[in-house]
Structures are given as structure tokens and as C-alpha cells.
Amino acid sequence: MLNNEVKKYLESLEQEQKSLASFHGEHNIAQEIKNILVKNKEYEPTNEDMAEQMAFDFIADYPNDNSGWETYHGPMFVWPNKEGQMVEYPSIKRVDQEMLEYWVKRAKESKNYILSSRYADLVVDFSPKTLGKNADIDLFQIVIDSNITICEKSLADPLDCKKKIKRALILAIQTNDQIRISKVKDTIIKLEKDIAIDDKPGLWGFAFKWFILDFAKKIILEDKEKNELINAIKERLERVEKNPWLTENAVSLLAEYYANEKDEENLMRVLGILENSLKTNERSNSDALLKTHAYEQIHEIYRKYANRFAEAEKANKRLSQEIGQLDLDWNKSLKEISVETKIKQEDIDSFLKSIFGVPSKDQNDELEMIMAKIAINHLPKKDAVKKQLDDISSKHPIQFLCTKQIISDDGVPIAKLSTLNEDYDNHFQSYALQYIQFGSFFLSLTMDELKKRFTKEKIVEYFEKSVIFENENKDYLKRAISTYWDNDYLVSSHLFNPLIESGIRELIKICDGIILKPNNLDGYDNVLLGGLLKNDQIFKNVFSKSGHNVLFYFKLVLTEKLGMNLRNDFAHGFGKKKFFGRNASDRLFHILIWLSVVRKKEK
Questions:
Q1: How far are the Cα atoms of 76, 407, 432, 436, 442 from residue 389, in angstroms, in the given order?
Q2: Is 456 left (phi over 0), alpha (psi -120 to 50) or beta?
Q3: Cβ-based burial of 361 (10 A; exposed 0-12, middle 13-18, buried ≥19)
Q4: Count of CB atoms within 10 A of residue 242's CB?
């Protein structure tokens, strides 16, 4: 039985149709029902009470497909419980046959169009999941007819009306109800005329998108109706072309239409309007980051049509050249953010002592032990990085919900990361770079202590005895280490890069890996570093338990675009400024140490 106060509230809604003229008005109904039910703490809500409350707490046109429901309605909230399992409210698991039958009854008896639409739509939406069959056709018709009336009588917010009438259109198409499709079509055209405002793109263009682009094969338009929709977007484009944001909305619609019609001339014309709007907009050119973003937008839309239209491909190549030639002042655009962390001297001393300990009488044995400790202590563990990223993202989720742009040291955008869930691997690479950068302070302290304890001659002698470097050019090895010991970081970094690649090649060779590949001259080419670092099994065998982390670390420092990318930047002349500092040189020397600790077994 339904709570008497809830019943009175619902009856009042039957008499006051316009009381719900707000966005997400259904949620307001659910909240009012909750307020009524909690007033009496001793009252135990009935199944009918919960059916009413849940009916209006579901979100229509659910934006997140991660729930796995594959339904039009989704939960209002999703949160983890103590066991780490995701809990949803309201949950589809609570919807059973009894609740569906209750909603069917309410849909047919209610005189409020918003109420009847919601009850009927839940039955239409959940019946396949709950009962394994579609709802009766009359429930579809209730949703369609109610939503048409809601929009005609403006019983909901304009954006909410737009959402409801699209739902009506989809259900009418799904049931192949031509009479209702025609009614919905007329309602949509009138709705857009009534609510369209130039500076609010969400309130115009939807009739064009649905009838001419999305559902063109399902809806019959008269030539007059089609021309009116096209001309309306053309006229609006003329009015808003000085605003890149509004221009993009109009151009995206017209460009897709012209592309479908294979009208290259008009396609390039409207794309040119967008390009000009973005290039001449004062705000888009106010700093380097915004200017780069504007060019990226233009480039991206030309690229979309480049494989179908020759002129778009030409424009795509032209934009690639223009982006590479942009004269950008990044110093005015980017802000440096620094955080001060106080580290006690006793903590530093303790850390260094754990690596260097008490000097040994046998300096050779001591050096080998220290090198092994340096290698291990400064190796980032992949699992630890992942755990830290997951912890931060759970405590501060907002910073991972927005698109993130990665800029290279040369000021070129190299990546655009979407949300953490959608682009986890790239977020992980980006965060792993930050992780090792945070550890650079202790790595530098370690290298300074190593230089204090051992002469460069002793270090050169150590590397010459290493199995990886025993066949290396002695003069090259000596020069590379000497410049590093003399704090000439620019030269040492440039010498370390080739030394590392030849060292890794030697490692692969010793382990019977492939270091040559056939070329088109009936000869062979050396496998380059990227190919050498694909030998997962060799790294796992050679470095035992650390193999997985060593390979991850090598790639992060040497070849990953979202990592330090030191080998590639060195080889191609990018980010040259980074090689003047010691961070790059310290990391490269640390990788050399990892290669140096390899020992050959007798068998």
C-alpha cells in the first residue's frame, strides 16, 4: 500500500501539470517522496513507496556506459563500498516483475504526462532485461504521445524537452509507427523554432542532425522541409561565424551533410569559414596554448575528411606544415608550479648509508656492490607507480575527468589524454614520468656521493670489466664517463645515448637474440633500439625478478613519447635544452649502471 502522504503528493501533481517545468524535474519528485518517507522514522516504506521513489531517481539518457546495463535509464549514484565493489542507486537489480506491473498500472491511470511517460518508459526500457521480452506496444505509445504533449505544452525545460522528444523519435522508429514518426517530426521542427537561440548551440541544429544525418533513412522529409532545415543552418552560420565555438557547431553539421552528398566545393567552403574564424579570433591567438589548440581543431576536422576528398587532404598537409612553423612564446603561456618539500638531513644521510655503507678494504668488491645497490634503489616499480596513481585518482578524481594536453620540451603538443577510465595506459605513462622526476633529487645525491668515493679512472676500469662493455671502444667509454665525472652534462648525455644502445644490442646478442634484420639490398640492417626493447623474455631472464621493471624503466627513459624519450629526442634533435641539465645525464648513467651489473654464467 502506498504511503498516504506520498499518495496526496502524487495526486497534487496530477492537477498541476506545469509544476515540473524544470530540468531533471523527475529527480525533484523523487526527492520530495524521500522527504515525506523520512519524516516518520518508525514508518517502514512499502514496495509501492520504493517503486515510486525509484521511478523518478533513475537518470534518463544515461551518459555513462560503464554500468553494463545497456539501458536508456541509469543510476543516480555509483560509489565503492568497503570491499571495493561498485554500488549503484537506484539499481536495476531491484526491478522485478512486481515493480514493472505496478509501473504499468500507474502509466495507464496517470493524467500527468511527465509521470505517465516515466512509468511507461521504465517498463519499455527494463522489460527485456528483467522479463526477457519487450513491453506491450501500448506502453511505447504512451511514452511517445506523452513526450509529444510535454514538448507541445512546454511542461519541461527546453533541454529536457529536446531529450524527451528524441526518445519519442527513437521509440517511434523502433516500432515503425509511421503516424507517430510524422507527429514527432512536426513537433521537433516546431520545438527548435520556438527555443532556438544563436548563442546556445544546444538549442539549435538538432532537427537538422536527427532528420538529415542520424536518421535520414528512417524519416521521410519533404523537399521544402529539408531545404528549410539546411537554409536555417546556413543563415545561422552567417550570423555566428565570428564566434569559433558557435561556428564549429554549425560547420560540423553542414560539413557532414556536404560530405555525404559528395559536394567537395561546399564542404571546403564551410571548413574554410571555420578555419578563418579560429585563426582570426582574438582569444584563440592570445597565447601559445590557445593558438596551438585552435590549429589542432582545424587540423583535426580536415583530417576527418582527408581520406575521402583530395582538397581536404591538401588542407590537412598544409595545416601540418603551419603547425610546425608556428612562432609561439611558451614563456607567456605556461606557468611553472613548484612545491617545496623539506627533507631532513638525517633522512638523506640514512638513505646514502643504505647504499654506500661503510667503506670496504677491497675497493673493487665494494664498487660492484654499490653499483648493484644504486641500480636497484633507483628503479621505479611498475606496480608501485600504478598503486600510487590509483590512490591519487580515487582521492582527487576531478583532475582526471578533464582532457589533458601534453606539451613537449620544444612546445609541440604530443598527446591529448581523455579521462583516466578512457585512456588509462597513456595517463599511466605520463604519471610514471612524474614519478621518476620526483626521485631525481635522490638520484643526484647518489651520483654526487659516487663521484666523491671513486675516481673516474676507477669507474672506467669497472665498466671495462663488465661483460656488456668489454668489447666497447675503450676511448669512447673513457670519454663518456670522464665528461660525466667532470659535470659536463651536455656532452656526457650525448655520449651516453649511443653507448646505451650499443650496450643493449650487446646484451641481446649475448642472449642469442636477433640484432639484425634483412633489408631490400640483399643484406642486413641493425635492429634499432625500439626493436631491441621488444625482447621481453630476454630482459626477464637476464634481470630475474627485476626484469619486468627494468624493461619498463628503459622504455620510459629512452623511447616513450610520454616518458623522458631521451634517446629519440637526442637522435632527432628535439628538446635540446633538457640535455644541459643533469637530470637527463643522471638517468642515462643509471641505465648504464643497470647494464654494467650483468654477469655471464658459466653455463
A1: 27, 20, 9, 13, 21
A2: alpha
A3: exposed
A4: 11
What does the alpha-carbon distance between residue 185 and residue 542 come to, in Å, rounded to a whole number? 68
**How many whole angstroms separate alpha carbon 87 and alpha carbon 330?**
45
Q: Are 177 and 141 a contacting pair, CB within 8 Å?
A: yes
Q: Which three cell numbers stand for residue 431?
A: 604519471
CA 298/CA 279 separation, integer angstroms: 9
Separation of alpha carbons 157 and 58, rounded Å: 18
DSSP code of residue 209: I
- How far apart CA 257 and CA 265 sit, in angstroms, is 12
Task: Please state the φ and ψ torsions of residue 371, each to the nearest 5 degrees.
Answer: -60, -40
472-491: pLDDT as tens digits? 899 999 999 999 999 999 99
Contact between residue 569 and residue 584 where contact means Cβ atoms under 8 Å apart: no
Q: Which amino acid makes up residue 411?
A: G
For residues 424 and 382, is the Cβ–Cβ distance under 8 A? no
> Could you read off the pLDDT of 229-288 as tens digits, one per residue?
999 999 999 999 889 889 999 999 999 999 999 999 999 999 999 999 988 888 777 777
- Reported residue count of the chain is 603
Number of neighbouring beta carbons within 10 Å of residue 461: 14
Cβ(50)–Cβ(42) below 8 Å: no
